[in-house]
Design goal:
The complex is a heterodimer. Chain A is an all-beta fold. Chain A is built from no helices and eleven strands. In chain A, strands 2, 4, 5, 6, 9, 10 and 11 form a seven-stranded mixed beta sheet that branches. Chain A has a four-stranded antiparallel beta sheet with strand order 1-3-8-7, with no helix packed on it. In chain A, a hairpin with an 8-residue loop joins strand 9 and strand 10 (about 105). Chain A starts with a strand and ends with a strand. By secondary structure, chain B is mostly beta strands. Chain B contains no helices and eleven strands. In chain B, the strands form two sheets. In chain B, strands 2, 4, 5, 9, 10 and 11 form a six-stranded mixed beta sheet that branches. In chain B, strands 1-3-8-7-6 form a five-stranded antiparallel beta sheet, with no helix packed on it. In chain B, strand 6 and strand 7 form a beta hairpin. The mean pLDDT of chain B is about 90. Classes of the chains: A mainly beta, B mainly beta. The interface of A and B includes residues 33, 50, 90 and 101 of A.
């Protein structure tokens, strides 16, 4: 039944060691998002793809990159994780024209040691 | 600047009572307002949305009210159940792809 699937659910990485988080969707939505959510805070949009068009938020650090090889998959790459990057990372999808209703995955909780 | 905020960080209600969660927003250009529910360890889940040309919308046990004059949004949950315990976020969308989340209200339901 899962429509937006994130892997892994928990990820531990070393300070400065590149890490990739994965997201896949079975909804065939053309918009995919990555959000960062720190403890007791609201999700913060990092970037989104509309089909293959990549849109970065102005305040997203260069340390965060994304790839979307096809409609179903999207990856979040953190090139050099710092302690401040420890958070829940949420992937979401939506249909064009219904951007208010986004479907979220379960998230990947990233720990940086 | 754009911002969406909530009046109360926590709300505690008795099971069976109605819950009202409030939210203030500042961007008068927002076209869409959305309520999400986030349970512990899970991603946010869409509850209900309302367009800026409406002032009320009802769903199953939930009602969203929008007052554009004072830039206020509320979520009413009827007959609150233990399964409603979660963090509730209001969010706004200006019609593009950017949805801005508010700070969240944690709802506790007492049995």
């Amino acid at each position: 039944d899962a429509m937006v699937i994130q892997n892994p659910r928990y990820q531990v990485t070393q300070f400065g060691k590149p890490v990739t988080l994965s997201c896949s969707q079975t909804l065939n939505h053309n918009v995919m998002y990555w959000y960062q959510q720190k403890s007791s805070q609201a999700p913060k949009l990092l970037f989104h793809y509309y089909d293959k068009d990549f849109n970065n938020e102005a305040d997203t650090p260069d340390n965060f990159q994304s790839r979307r090889p096809n409609t179903s998959f999207c990856f979040l790459d953190i090139r050099s994780p710092g302690l401040g990057d420890a958070a829940m990372y949420l992937c979401a999808t939506s249909r064009v024209g219904q951007t208010g209703e986004a479907f979220f995955g379960q998230g990947t909780r990233l720990t940086v040691v | 600047g754009e911002s969406v905020g909530l009046h109360l960080p926590t709300l505690s209600v008795q099971e069976g009572d109605n819950s009202i969660i409030n939210c203030a927003y500042s961007n008068s250009a927002s076209d869409y307002f959305i309520w999400y529910k986030q349970e512990s360890g899970k991603g946010p889940q869409f509850i209900i949305d309302i367009r800026s040309n409406m002032d009320k919308r009802q769903g199953q046990r939930v009602t969203v009210l929008l007052n554009k004059t004072v830039k206020h949004l509320s979520l009413q949950i009827a007959a609150t159940q233990p399964g409603d315990s979660a963090v509730y976020f209001c969010a706004e969308n200006t019609g593009g792809f950017k949805t801005i989340f508010g700070a969240g209200t944690r709802l506790f339901v007492k049995a």
